[in-house]
């Protein structure tokens, strides 16, 4: 794939694309994992049963999602994606090409992090500039969080707690609703993270020991 370049203020900047950002960000996150082997990195984590997928999710004591929008992408779907991400993820960071920065600031909430991904002709690859740190999401929905679980995982948690009576043959949404009735938010989040980390070879080469934080 040919990479385009743009002249901005008499300097040439190479357009980023999804693949170049994804590879570089994954390598960056894997570097952090060396210091904390409990981290698991999941690519294309489905939310709301596939209604949206966050490009990269880092699972440890929280679930931090990274949404990638390269210079050659558009922000057309971002508003719709935001509604789903905001219901589920603990922290969210938008990683954007330089051409999207100003528009991104206007679109995403103040608690989202923002990182610029850029390439200049003299660089060997994508570099990142942290513009704003992500902070904790104040708008999560416990049923949406529970929906990260597979049906059998949700039922197993209810069985362990002796609260599966009456819902064993019900739809998965009924299982998720029961979970939110019998577990507080933090306990539910911990159980969801443990399940995500225990899925062997599931969209991730990185394994982790489930965190109980």
Could you name the ranges where pLDDT drops below 50 across 5 or more consecutive residues?
Answer: 1-11, 205-213
Global structural class: alpha/beta
Largest sheet descriptor: 6 strands, mixed
Number of contiguous helices = 7
Beta-strand residue percentage: 15-25%
CATH architecture of the largest domain: 3-Layer(aba) Sandwich
CATH topology of the largest domain: Trna Endonuclease, Chain: A, domain 1
Give the averaged pLDDT, no decimals: 88
Compact summary:
This protein has about 210 residues and is of the alpha/beta class. The protein is about 35% helix and about 25% strand.
Written account of the structure:
This protein has 213 residues and is α/β, with parallel strands linked by helices. It folds into 2 domains: 115 residues, Trna Endonuclease, Chain: A, domain 1; 60 residues, no CATH class. Helix content is 36%, strand content 23%. It has 7 helices and 8 strands. The strands form 2 sheets. Strands 3-4-5-6-7-8 form a 6-stranded mixed sheet, sandwiched between helices. β4 and β5 form a beta hairpin. α5 packs parallel to α6. It is elongated, with a radius of gyration of 19 Å.
What keywords describe this structure?
single chain, 213 residues, alpha/beta, Trna Endonuclease, Chain: A, domain 1, 2 domains, six-stranded mixed β-sheet, two-stranded antiparallel ribbon, elongated, disordered N terminus
Topology, pairings included?
Elements: E1 5-8, E2 11-14, H1 18-35, E3 40-47, E4 52-59, E5 63-69, H2 78-88, E6 91-97, H3 101-107, E7 113-118, E8 127-132, H4 142-146, H5 151-160, H6 172-182, H7 185-198
Parallel strand pairs: 5-6, 6-7
Antiparallel strand pairs: 1-2, 3-4, 4-5, 7-8
Helix pairs in contact: 5-6
